[in-house]
Amino acid sequence: MDLLQELVKFNVTDAAIAKMSQDYMKLSVKGIEDKAGYASVHSARMVVKGKRVEVEKKGKELRADALAYQKAVIAEGKRIIALLEPIESHLATEEKKVDDELERIKQEAIEKKRIMVQARINSVFSFGATYDGDNYSVLGVTISGEWLAGCTPEQFTDLEAKIASLRDAENARLAEIEAKRKEEEERLAKIAAEQEAERKRLEEAAREQARKEAEAKAEIEKREAALKAEADRIAAEKKAIEDAKIQAELEVKRQAELEKARIEAAAQAKKEAEEAAEKARVDAELKAKKETEDKAEAERLAKLETERIESLRPDKDKLLAFADALDKITFPDLATEDGKRIIIDTRSSILQATKALRKKAIALTGEAEREAA
Q1: What pLDDT does 9 receive?
Q2: Do 239 and 285 lie in a common domain?
Q3: For labeling, which of 10, 20, 169, 363 is most exposed (least CB within 10 Å)?
Q4: pLDDT value at 26 more than 90
């Protein structure tokens, strides 16, 4: 049997292949919207593929007759397939362009949504939210993870505005507390300044009183010295004068002057004693008044401190609850060493953050020292 005549049974001539090459190699797909082009490329590829499969099948049948015939069939089949393969490859490449672009668009949409959801999560966390695995909680508002991922941009904008309003209200409340605290500090500083001025005034009054007492004492000593000098003078005169009457008159005069000086000294001493008693009374009243005011001020400050601590206690509890929530975060199991190292570093950072968070939360109410003890 003539092998060349048998090979005609493949039913695919070079002319037919040339015609397919001429018709199909110019086909292309202009993009994912070119549905007609895609359909033409696909239909053409199916025709070429059908011919290729038909040749392969017919080749197997022809190879069964004889080894020589089989080799001739195989060689002819390979030759024809080699002619068909560039056409099929071209058409497959055109198809793959569209398939790859559709897959890229699909993955791009998935990534875009992931970025959007992460941005929303970051926004909620920026307000100080906590996450329990299902829901986010911030300033009394609970948000499910499912709602966060599926809400519209307008709904999320409304949520951010609501949380921002709650945050601003909380900040205003804390600012009011701080303003009251500063006002109280200023009032106490004013009282302290007034008390210091009063102390200085009393010290000055005491110095003035001491000066007056010293002057009075010096005056008495001066008068006594004068009296003594006068007495000495009278004594000298008395010694020189023998007249008893003159001596008597001089003695009477001296005694009168001594009595006058004694009376004046007694009056001065009485006056000074009264002034000292008055000063002691005023000092006692001021001291008692200051002690009463200091006690009342201490009680008021203690009450304010208690109120401040109680106002901060809810924030402390929320912060501690947030730290507990951070401790309960479940980390994913990763396959690579690099991934595992990232998880280890992240877990360490969160542990340090929660320790610092608890310490600061406890310090809000001034209980750090007591709890540490």
Answers
A1: 59
A2: yes
A3: 169
A4: yes
Q: How far is CA 7 from the centre of its chain?
A: 84
Q: What is the pTM of this model?
A: 0.32
Number of domains making up the chain: 2
Strand-pair partners of 135: 144
Chain-centroid distance, C-alpha 84 = 69
Q: Coil, strand or helix: which one is 142?
A: strand
Q: Does residue 38 sit in the same domain as residue 162?
A: no
Beta bridge partners of 142: 137
Percentage, residues of the chain above pLDDT 90:
22
Task: Name the CA dihedral angle for 305, 307, 309, 311, rounded to a multiple of 10 degrees.
Answer: -150
What is the spatial distance between Cα 329 and Cα 294, in angstroms, rounded to a whole number? 52
- From start to end of the chain, where are the E strands? 130-131, 135-138, 141-144
Contact 149, 117 (CB under 8 A): yes
Helix (H, G, I), strand (E, B) or coil at 138: strand
For residue 42, what are the domain limits? 3-110
Q: How many residues does the chain have?
A: 373
Contact 102, 34 (CB under 8 A): no
* 350 in any annotated domain: no
> What DSSP string describes 3-28?
HHHHHGGG---HHHHHHHHHHHTT--
| Strands, E assignment, 31-172 | 130-131, 135-138, 141-144
268-326 pLDDT per residue, tens: 888 888 888 888 888 888 888 888 988 888 888 888 878 888 788 898 898 989 889 88
88 found inside a domain: yes
From residue 81, alpha-carbon distances to 5, 50, 53 in Å are 19, 12, 9
